[in-house]
Amino acid sequence: MAAPVTSDQLESARRAVERAARRFGDLLADVPDPAAMATRDWTVADTAAHVATIARLYTALVRGPAEPLPFDGMDGLRTATVDTVAVLNEVMLDQFRERDPGAIAAALRADVADVLKASADAEPGEPVHWLGGARVPMAGLLAHLLNEIQLHGRDIARASGADWAIPPGDIGMFFELFVAGMTRNGLGHLLDSTAPPPRRRVAVEFRSRYMAPVTIVLQDRRVFVEEPGGDVDVRLSFDPPALSLMLFGRISKARALLSGRVVVRGRRPWLLPVFMRTVRFPG
């Protein structure tokens, strides 16, 4: 059963998205070279455009499944998995042709304002239809956009020689409202894979000072949430930005662990890689 999402959590996510989008726009205003590579495949301008496409897509998703999508060729949205989401990213990038940082920032600000307006009177836990048939609470949708802005803001800042500190509370919302919230509401096809599932139940407790603790369980091919305090195999204590950077391939697992910002304990810590092969993120 879905845990309640409070009005305070929704409002916190809304305020954080507004702040992050404004900060992202300020970062783009000072970009020295939009053609510099920010990731392995994307320039600074491409990376900024990607964030803008997410915000534009969410102007439709926040209004419900009957709202027309702002991009063509998105038939794979409802059947997407974490392994095919990159295809949808490229479909949207191909149609969002703007690569001037100032124009991208203006588009992002306008679409974020629209998302915030549309979500202002929403029920905090109202399920939003997301990729792969997953269902995300309204506050979780905003928390996902927040993580995108923060993660790619860091990509652009590193390529531009700028500073970009990621607030831990922002990414705590990503894990609590988006990851755990989506797991509670239903993951759809998002984690579908042809790989065989683990032979045993694996339970991982996620614990951080920036979110309520949550236990996510992998059993057969099902992934679900249990209340904390039960039998777990792995206890994962973490600083939210460090875990996000690790899961999305920005820092290595060794660096995250050696820094002490991600700590793995429990009776069976060796089961964490087994868990993460199924409960995975786009790298």
UniProtKB/TrEMBL annotation:
<dbReference type="InterPro" id="IPR024344">
    <property type="entry name" value="MDMPI_metal-binding"/>
</dbReference>
<dbReference type="InterPro" id="IPR034660">
    <property type="entry name" value="DinB/YfiT-like"/>
</dbReference>
<feature type="domain" description="Mycothiol-dependent maleylpyruvate isomerase metal-binding">
    <location>
        <begin position="18"/>
        <end position="157"/>
    </location>
</feature>
<dbReference type="Pfam" id="PF11716">
    <property type="entry name" value="MDMPI_N"/>
</dbReference>
<keyword id="KW-0670">Pyruvate</keyword>
<protein>
    <submittedName>
        <fullName>Maleylpyruvate isomerase family mycothiol-dependent enzyme</fullName>
    </submittedName>
</protein>
<dbReference type="GO" id="GO:0046872">
    <property type="term" value="F:metal ion binding"/>
</dbReference>
<dbReference type="GO" id="GO:0016853">
    <property type="term" value="F:isomerase activity"/>
</dbReference>
<dbReference type="InterPro" id="IPR017517">
    <property type="entry name" value="Maleyloyr_isom"/>
</dbReference>
<keyword id="KW-0413">Isomerase</keyword>
